[in-house]
Amino acid sequence: MTDWLVTGGTRARDPQAPVLSRVVDDKVSQLEMELEEERNNSDLLSERISRSREQISPVTPNLSQSPSEPRLTDKMETKAESLWIIQQVA
């Protein structure tokens, strides 16, 4: 960014140039921090997805349970409801 102005055929130093430069630098730093945070969030989400897939893979063969047993989703919903109740009480 230029910090010189041409006025009336002469060059004069722009008094706002250092302020504008600092504002731009601050904004760039802020955006870089936000980008890094998004990358970290993306990495964490990928790890959670991988762990979930690892947890689900052994259960997949059990999806064809006999009708007398509760379905897997029913068990999962009951567990989720229990966890929710515990969180509400705590």
TrEMBL record:
Ranges of biased composition (kind: Basic and acidic residues): 38-54
Ranges of Polar residues composition bias in the record: 58-68
Protein name: Uncharacterized protein
Superkingdom per UniProt: Eukaryota
Disordered as annotated region, ranges: 33-76
Organism: Saguinus oedipus
